[in-house]
Every structure is written in C-alpha cells, then in structure tokens.
Amino acid sequence: MSRFKDFMNSDAGAHARYQKRKQRRVHIYIDDIEPQSKKMPETDRDKFQEAVAEQLTSVKRSTFTGDVALKIDLATTSRNAPQAHTIAKNLLDLLGARRSHVKWPRRHLLYKDDRQIQALSVSCRHGESSPAISIEARSFVAILDDLELAAEARRSVEMNSDYLYEQNREADWIKTFRDLIDNEANSRRSLGDDAYDAYRKMTRWYAQRALLKSSRVTIPVLNWMYGRPKGIPTGLEKEIWAKLVSVSKLRLQVGELPITRGSSDVFKQNVLSEISAFKNRWDWLISPLVVSVALEVIIRPNPETPPAVLHDLDNIVRDYLLPGIVPKFGTVSDHRWTIDFDELQRTNPAIAKYWGPNPTPPSGTKSGVTRYEAWRLPAVAGEPGFVSVAIIADVDANGDHMDEIDESIKTWASPSGRNYRY
C-alpha cells in the first residue's frame, strides 16, 4: 500500500478530510438587522438578501443544488420579538428565491428550495443588547461524513467505564425522586417540612435533567440510523436502529406525516393524544417542568410520499409539534425563566446582583423552547414512516447535534483525546 493510501486510511487522514469539509461550509453573519417574522419590512428583506449575497460572493460560493444541513442562531432585541419558529420561517424563505431588487447572478441565494434541507437546527436568545443572525450551511453529504467520524470518536468515550458510571449515577436521581414522593410522610417527619420541600425541589431538577437527557438520540445511534459506516457491519441494520427510536417510551411517537388530503387533522390529533399519553406516564416527574428544554425531531417519510407533498422540516415543527407541546408542557424559551429570582434574592443576594435588575427576557417571549432541531432519515421501501420527538433537557450548554459532532471531533483530535500521529 502506498504512503498516500496509508495516510488516507489513518486517523490523521480522516482528520484532514474533516478539515477540508469544514472549509467548504458557508457562514453568514448579520448583526445590523433585527430578526423578524413575515412582518419584516420590505427594506429589511432586501437588506438581508443583499448581505447574504455579499457574503456568498466574498467566499466565492454559489447556490447549493443538493441536500443541505442548516444551522440558524438568532438574537433579538425587540420587546415584542416574535417566537423563533416564526422568525425562522421568514428567513428560510428569504434564503431561497432572490428578490427583484437584490443584485445576484442567480435566481436563488443559498438554495433553490427549502425542501433541500435534510437537517435543521434553530436556536434563539431574546432580550439581547444587539441583534444577530448567524447561519451555517453545509452539504448534507458532508455532515453525514462528519457524523460518521464523530460517532467513532464518541464510541470510544461511551465505552469508557467512567462514562457508563456517570450515566447510571444520573439515572439514580429519578429513583431518588420517586422514593421521595412515595414516602412523603416519613420523609417530612425525618427532615422537617422546609428541608423536605427544598430537597424535593432540588431532586426534581436533577431527575428531570436525567430523564430528559436520556431521551435524546446519541451521535453513534444517529449515525447508525443513516446506515453509516457504509459497508461495515454494526450488528443491527439501520432499520432496526430507527425502529428502536420510533418505539421508545422516553419520546413522543406521533406516527406518520399526513400525505393525503384531509389527513392533517388526524395527524394533529395523534400529536395531542401522544402528548397526553406521555404526560400520563411521566407527569409525576415533569409537572411542572423546572428545566429548560429543546426539541429533537427524527423523521422518516413514508416511501409512498409524493415529492410534491414532502413536508419541510421547519413546517413539521412549527405547524404540528410546537402548538401542542409548548402549552401542554409549559415549556419556556430561556433557562432564565426557570430561576426563581425572588427566592435567589433572599437566599443569595450576591448571585442575584450578578443577574442584574431585569434578568429575564421580555415577557412575550417566554413560551417556547430553547432550540429545535430536525433530522430527516431516508425513506425505506416497505417500512412505514414515523415522527419521533424528544423533549431534551437543555441546561448544560452542550448545543445541538451539529455542535456535538464538531466538539466530539475536536476532543478526539486534541492531545488529550485520541492523539493521532501523522
């Protein structure tokens, strides 16, 4: 085998290919336009597209013609800022067809149609001091290659005994909370009312964090659901991994997307029914939610889905999931809404002072989730489609799967990680 082939098959070669893919990503950053919904003024629409066109031109990038992975991070300043999903809808449309007043040699900007988006992540911070719109786009093939490399990096970590011990230790919080509420009378006698209430509150937070962290799909499982690595047996086929995710009781399983006329109402009812079933299973722990949460959505279309009715990822989240999940679970758009600042002022004035006099974002932005991300699996002939939703604890600032992919590879390539040799 040649030295070049040796290098390409080595860890160093894998990392070099990753760096090359990373250089091909498109980064767009705009800090002088307030993120808005479809109510955005016409002048701001043109200004947004002009900024996108200018930044694409500066890096000599053209319109994506194939499938895309897209990440959008937003910061709003308005006291009456719209919800993140309505902002995203507007921006996704503006990233497509070029407006007539915008100078750009093509009819489309970042992509031709937002149905090209096969992985989407949207996050938003309200009440910031300055506006920001940050967009990262890469080909979907590239992110699957990144995912495969990250899965290998994560596999070595997750087989580590320390990792397994930490996972088991976190799960113990759920049992501790269950025991605490099942034996409330004895615990109150033993601890006293004030100590019991404080301990129960703390335990609920840790137990919710443990439950809602365990509901997410891990990087290796996401990789296996896409049939990666190619040509290397993993013990289970991609259909089996998808089946395991689609039946997990830790997730909302809302069935197949509507593809025929009149079936949307049935699907919406399925969503509400599954929310009720999930709450019945876990209400003792998650009501009320005391942790901020994000959504992770895994979608596999029915193989009979006509191309003309293939649902955009953003539409699935915006039209079918958020309207039921946010009010039923009482989810909030920022972790600051989960902090009792009046109590903090009484118990720890120094920390309360650090947060400032107005620590929460504008009240109208409270309802929502901190982030949502959706991944579309390829349809499988002879297999039904599904939509599987995880309500994920978002309290550790770990970011979405796209962030986790990059962070896993970064750790793997660092001197303290795998420490490969050239």
Q: Can you give a write-up of this model?
A:
By secondary structure, the chain is α+β, with helices and mostly antiparallel strands. The protein has 2 domains: 24-142, 60s Ribosomal Protein L30, Chain: A (2-Layer Sandwich), CATH 3.30.1330; 149-413, no CATH class. Helix content is 48%, strand content 13%. It contains 15 helices and 8 strands. It has helices at residues 3-8, 11-23, 42-58, 84-94, 140-158, 161-182, 184-191, 193-214, 219-225, 238-246, 264-286, 313-329, 341-347, 349-355, 401-413, and strands at 26-30, 68-75, 117-125, 132-139, 252-253, 293-300, 371-376, 386-393. It has an 8-stranded mixed β-sheet with strand order 1-4-2-3-7-6-8-5. Helix 6 crosses helix 8 (193-214). The protein is globular, with a radius of gyration of 23 Å. It starts with a helix and ends in a 9-residue tail after the last helix.
Provide a concise account of the structure shown.
The protein has 422 residues and is of the alpha+beta class. Helix content is 48%, strand content 13%. The chain has 2 domains: 24-142, 60s Ribosomal Protein L30, Chain: A (2-Layer Sandwich); 149-413, no CATH class.
Residue-averaged pLDDT:
91
* Derived structural class: alpha+beta
Alpha carbon gap, first and last residue: 16 Å
Q: Report the uncertain regions.
A: none
Shape: globular
Kindly estimate the percentage of residues that lie in beta strands according to DSSP. Answer: 5-15%
Compute the number of strand runs: 8
